[in-house]
Design brief:
The complex is a heterotrimer of chains A (about 260), B (about 260) and C (about 270). Chain A has about 260 residues and is α/β, with parallel strands linked by helices. Chain A folds into two domains: about 190 residues, P-loop containing nucleotide triphosphate hydrolases (Rossmann fold), CATH 3.40.50.300; about 70 residues, no CATH class. Chain A has seven helices and ten strands. In chain A, the strands form two sheets. A six-stranded mixed beta sheet of chain A has the order 6-7-8-3-9-10, with helices on both faces. A four-stranded antiparallel beta sheet of chain A has the order 2-1-4-5, with helices on one face. In chain A, helix 2 crosses helix 3, helix 2 runs parallel beside helix 4 and helix 6 packs across helix 7. The longest helix of chain A is centred in the last third of the chain and has 19 residues. The N and C termini of chain A lie far apart (about 50 Å). Chain B starts with a helix and ends in a 10-residue tail after the last helix. The radius of gyration of chain B is 23 Å and the shape is globular. Helices cover about 80% and strands about 0% of the residues of chain B. Chain B is mainly α. Chain B has a domain of about 160 residues: MetI-like (MetI-like fold), CATH 1.10.3720. Chain C is mainly α. The longest helix of chain C is centred in the N-terminal third of the chain and has 32 residues. Chain C folds into two domains: about 30 residues; about 210 residues, MetI-like (MetI-like fold, Orthogonal Bundle). In chain C, helix 4 crosses helix 10 and helix 6 packs across helix 7. Chain C is globular, with a radius of gyration of 23 Å. Chain C is built from twelve helices and no strands. Classes of the chains: A alpha/beta (about 260), B mainly alpha (about 260), C mainly alpha (about 270). Chains in contact: A-C, B-C. At the A-C interface, helix 2 of A face helix 8 and helix 9 of C.
Chain lengths: ~260, ~260, ~270
C-alpha cells in the first residue's frame, strides 16, 4: 500500500459575497510511495498549494479522502511537517530557538531538544549561525532554518510549498542542490510544490502536473534520472525531453488564462 | 438576512451596544448601592441636569467658549505645524536646528510651564489658546515632517528623470504623498488641542467646560460636573471621528507600506 | 481599528558618534541652534527687547539651579512626585497588560471594548481631577489616580492591537506543527505583541508625567508641581524654569530608555 493515498479529493470554497461555490480542486487521485520525492507543478490557480495544504491537514476536504499510512488526515499531525514559502520564523527567537519550536509544540520526547536542534542546524549548513536572529539572515539562510525546523520533528512526510519561490534565481539553484543533499540522508517522502519547471524535474522521482478550472491532475510523469543528481543532469537529453513535455502542458494553460483583467 | 446585516456592521453594532451597556451599568451600580451617587451621580440625574443647563443656555455658553479656544489653538497649530513640518521635511538643516527644541517640547509636559504662561499672558483666553496650541503642535509637526521626509524615493526619482525641478517635486510628489500622514497628525492634534483647552480651563478661566468642571467641583456638585465631563468626552469623540472620516477620504490610494 | 498611535515621533537625534572628532552635520546644526537660542535669551533682557522679569536669563536659571539643589528641599519634593508617578504607572501596568492580552484574543471582546476605550483614551481624563479630588482627597491619591488613568488606556489599546495584528503566516506555521490554542497564545501571540506593548508604554510615559504635573498644579501640598505653582505665582521665573527643566529631563530620560528597548525589539520587524 502506498504511504500517501489520495482518493477522489475535492475542496470547495464559498465566495465571500453570496453563495457561489468554487472548486479549488476536484476529482484528484494520487498515490505516493514511501521515500518518493514528488513534485507538483502547474500554472497559478491549478490548486497545487491547496492540495498540499489538504495533505498537511490545514484545509478541510469537501469530498474524498487522504490517507497516510492507512490513517485519515483530519488535521495537522506529527507525521507531517510543512516548509512554507515564507520562512515564518519567530523573529524574537534565534536560529536554534526557531528550530526547537516544532519540537516544543509536539512535546518531543526523543532526547535533548537542544542537541536535536543543533544536529539539524548543522545538517542544513548553518552550524556557525545557531545564535543569529532571523533579521540577520539572508532569505536563503532563513529557508534553511525553515527546513531544519521541519526535519527536526522527524516527520513521515515532508511537505514543501514553493519554498524557494521568494529567492532569487541563483540562490534557488543552490538551494535545490542543497535540498537534495539533505534529503539523501533520510530519503523522506516529500511533496514539493513549484511553478518552476526545471526545479520540478531536477528534484523529482515523480512529477504531478496539475491543470486549472477546476484544479485536477493532468498527468503523472516518472523521472528516471539517476541519483544523486548534480547540475550536469540539467543538460542531459532526458531532461530536455521532460522539459518540453511540461512546457507543452503549461502553454495549454497559459492560452486559457486571461492575463489582463478587462475593465467592464 | 438579519444575521448577514449583523455580520457586516458588527463593529458598529457592538460598539453602540457597549456604550449603552456602560450607561446601564452605571445606573445600576449607583441604584444598587455599589457606588455612592455623591461621587459619580447617575445617568438619569445627569440627563435631567443636562436638559436644565441646556435650556438656560449654560451648555451653549460653555461649549461655545471651549470651542472658540479650540478653534483658535487648532488653527494656529495646523498652520504652524504644517509650515514648520514642510520646511523641516524638505531642508535637513531646518530639521536639525529645530530638533533639540522639539525633543524638549516632546519630553516636557507643556503644562509644567503653565505658571509661566500665566505670568506672561495672564489668566484667561490667551493662555488657554497658547497651551492648547503647544499641545496640538507636536503631532502635526511630527507627522508633516515624517510625511515629507519619507516621500517615496522611487516616485521622486521617476519625476526627476522627467526633468522635474525640486520645486515641482515638492509640490507634485512630496506634498500630495504626505497628505495621509498629515491627516493622521491632524486627527491626533484635535484630541490634544481639546485636552489642552479643557485642562487649561480647569485652572484659570471664567467660561468653558473646564471652568464649569472646576467651578462645580469646588461646590461639590457632582451632577453638574458630570454634565460637562460627559460633554467633553462626547466632543472629543465627535471631533476625532470627523477627522478620521476626512482622513479616510484622503486615504484611498494608499497601500499599507506607508505605515 | 487604527492602532492608537500613528504619529511619527521626532526623529532620533543623530547622536554624535563615539568618535568625537567627526560629529555629524545635523548634530552641529542642532547644537548651534541651541547655542544661538541661549545667547539670544541671555542678551534680550539686557538689550531691553523683552522684560527680564518674565523670561529670566540662562545665567539666572543656572544660579537658581545651584541654589535649589542645595537649599530648597529639592529631594523632598522630587521624591513625592516620583512616588506618585511610580505608584500610578505600576498600577497601570499591572492592570493594563493582562487586560490587553486577554481582550486582544477575542474578536467580540475587541469590538465591544474598543469604542469605550478609545473614547476614554481620546478624552482628557485630566478633567476628572476635580471629581478625583472629591473622592480621594488632596494628598497623593488623586495624583496617582490621574497617572493611572493617563497610562492605562494607551497600554491596553496598543497591547490589544498587538495581539490582534499577529502575522497570520506565523499562526499558520504554528498550527502546522500541531500547536494547541494555548501554545499559540503563549508562544506566538504574546511575544509577538511585545513591540506594540512597548509603544503603548512609551505613549503612556508622556501622559503619566503630564498627570503628575497637572495633578500637583491643581492641588498639592508638596511636590515638583507644587513648587512650580509657588514660584509661578511669586514671579520667580528663574526658579520656575529650573523645576520645569527637571520635569522635562525626567520625561526625556524615560522616553529615551523606552525608545532604546523599542529599538532592540524593532529589529525583529526588519525582514
Amino acid at each position: 500500500m502506498a504511504q500517501i493515498e489520495i482518493r477522489d479529493l475535492g475542496i470547495d470554497y464559498r465566495k465571500p459575497k453570496g453563495d457561489e461555490v468554487f472548486s479549488a480542486v476536484d476529482g484528484v487521485a494520487l498515490s505516493v510511495e514511501k521515500g518518493e520525492f514528488v513534485t507538483i507543478v502547474g500554472s497559478s490557480g491549478c490548486g497545487k498549494s491547496t492540495l498540499l495544504m489538504a495533505v498537511a491537514g490545514l484545509v478541510a476536504l469537501s469530498r474524498g479522502s487522504i490517507r497516510i499510512d492507512g490513517k485519515d488526515v483530519t488535521g495537522p499531525g506529527p507525521d507531517r511537517a510543512v516548509v512554507f514559502q515564507e520562512a515564518s520564523l519567530l523573529p524574537w527567537r534565534s536560529v536554534r530557538g526557531n528550530v526547537k519550536f516544532g519540537l516544543e509544540m509536539q512535546r518531543w520526547s526523543g532526547g535533548n531538544l537542544d542537541e536535536r536542534a543543533m544536529q539539524m542546524i548543522r545538517l542544513v549548513g548553518l552550524g556557525r549561525f545557531s545564535d543569529y536572529q532571523p533579521h540577520q539572515l539572508s532569505g536563503g539562510m532563513r529557508q534553511r532554518v525553515n527546513i531544519a525546523r521541519a526535519l527536526a520533528v522527524d516527520p513521515e512526510v515532508l511537505l514543501m510549498d514553493e519554498p524557494f519561490g521568494a529567492l532569487d534565481a541563483q540562490t534557488r539553484e543552490i538551494m535545490g542542490t542543497e535540498l537534495l543533499r539533505i534529503w539523501e540522508r533520510d530519503k523522506k517522502t516529500a511533496l514539493f510544490v513549484t511553478h518552476d519547471i526545471d526545479e520540478a524535474i531536477f528534484l523529482a522521482d515523480k512529477i504531478v502536473v496539475m491543470g486549472r478550472n477546476p484544479g485536477h491532475i493532468k498527468e503523472v510523469i516518472t523521472v528516471d534520472l539517476p541519483r544523486p543528481r548534480d547540475e550536469e543532469v540539467l543538460d542531459s537529453e532526458d531532461f530536455h525531453n521532460l522539459r518540453k513535455r511540461l512546457r507543452a502542458h503549461l502553454a495549454e494553460d497559459m492560452s486559457s488564462m486571461q492575463l489582463v483583467q478587462e475593465v467592464a | 438576512m438579519i444575521a448577514e446585516l449583523f455580520y457586516r456592521r458588527q463593529a458598529l453594532i457592538l460598539g453602540t451596544l457597549s456604550m449603552i451597556g456602560l450607561v446601564v451599568l452605571w445606573q445600576i451600580a449607583v441604584d444598587g448601592g455599589f457606588i455612592n451617587p455623591f461621587f459619580i451621580s447617575t445617568p438619569s440625574q445627569v440627563w435631567t441636569e443636562f436638559v436644565a443647563q441646556f435650556e438656560d443656555g449654560q451648555v451653549a455658553a460653555n461649549v461655545g467658549a471651549t470651542l472658540y479656544c479650540f478653534a483658535w489653538s487648532m488653527g494656529l497649530a495646523t498652520v504652524a505645524g504644517i509650515l514648520l513640518g514642510m520646511l523641516a521635511g524638505w531642508f535637513p538643516d531646518v530639521e536639525a536646528a529645530l530638533e533639540p527644541f522639539i525633543w524638549f517640547k516632546y519630553s516636557a509636559p507643556t503644562v509644567a510651564f503653565y505658571p509661566l504662561f500665566v505670568a506672561w499672558l495672564g489668566y484667561g483666553t490667551p493662555t488657554i489658546i497658547a497651551i492648547a496650541f503647544l499641545f496640538a503642535l507636536t503631532p502635526i509637526y511630527a507627522n508633516t515632517l515624517s510625511g515629507i521626509k519619507n516621500t517615496d524615493r522611487d516616485l521622486a526619482r521617476a519625476a526627476r528623470s522627467f526633468g522635474a525641478k525640486p520645486y515641482d517635486i515638492f509640490f507634485r510628489v512630496a506634498l500630495p504623498g504626505s497628505v495621509p500622514v498629515m491627516m493622521a497628525g491632524l486627527r491626533l492634534g484635535v484630541g490634544r488641542a481639546l485636552t489642552g483647552v479643557v485642562v487649561a480651563e480647569l485652572f484659570g478661566a471664567n467660561a468653558g467646560l473646564g471652568y464649569a468642571i472646576t467651578y462645580y467641583g469646588q461646590l461639590m456638585q457632582t451632577t453638574r460636573m458630570m454634565v460637562s465631563i460627559v460633554i467633553v468626552i462626547l466632543l472629543g469623540v465627535i471631533l476625532t471621528q470627523i477627522l478620521s472620516f476626512l482622513e479616510s477620504k484622503t486615504d484611498s490610494w494608499r497601500t499599507d507600506t506607508g505605515r | 481599528m487604527r492602532s492608537a498611535e500613528m504619529t511619527a515621533a521626532p526623529a532620533e537625534a543623530k547622536q554624535v558618534s563615539f568618535s568625537f572628532l567627526y560629529p555629524s552635520r545635523s548634530a552641529v546644526v542642532g547644537t548651534l541652534a541651541v547655542l544661538l537660542f541661549l545667547v539670544l535669551w541671555q542678551v534680550a533682557p539686557s538689550m531691553g527687547w523683552v522684560n527680564g522679569r518674565f523670561t529670566s536669563q540662562p545665567t539666572e536659571v543656572f544660579l537658581a539651579a545651584i541654589d535649589i539643589f542645595r537649599n530648597d528641599n529639592f529631594l523632598y519634593h522630587a521624591r513625592i512626585s516620583l512616588t506618585e508617578f511610580v505608584a500610578g504607572f505600576a498600577l497601570a501596568i499591572v492592570v493594563s497588560i493582562p487586560l490587553g492580552v486577554l481582550l486582544g484574543t477575542s474578536k467580540i471582546a475587541r469590538y465591544l471594548i474598543d469604542p469605550p476605550l478609545m473614547a476614554l483614551y481620546i478624552a482628557p481624563t485630566l478633567v476628572l481631577l476635580p471629581i478625583l479630588v472629591i473622592w480621594l482627597g488632596i494628598d497623593m491619591a488623586p495624583k496617582i489616580a490621574v497617572v493611572f488613568l493617563g497610562a492605562v488606556f494607551p497600554i491596553v489599546l496598543n497591547t490589544m492591537a498587538g495581539m490582534s495584528e499577529a502575522d497570520p503566516k506565523l499562526l499558520r506555521m504554528a498550527r502546522s506543527f500541531g500547536a494547541s490554542k494555548f501554545d499559540i497564545f503563549s508562544r506566538v501571540l504574546v511575544p509577538g505583541s511585545l513591540p506594540a506593548l512597548l509603544t503603548g508604554i512609551r505613549l503612556a510615559v508622556g501622559r503619566a508625567v503630564l498627570g503628575v504635573v497637572v495633578g500637583e498644579l491643581f492641588v498639592s501640598q508638596a511636590g515638583i508641581g507644587y513648587q512650580l505653582n509657588l514660584y509661578g505665582q511669586a514671579m520667580r521665573i528663574d526658579r520656575l524654569l529650573v523645576y520645569a527643566l527637571v520635569v522635562s529631563a525626567f520625561g526625556y530620560t524615560l522616553t529615551i530608555l523606552v525608545r532604546s528597548v523599542e529599538n532592540k525589539v524593532r529589529d525583529w520587524r526588519s525582514k
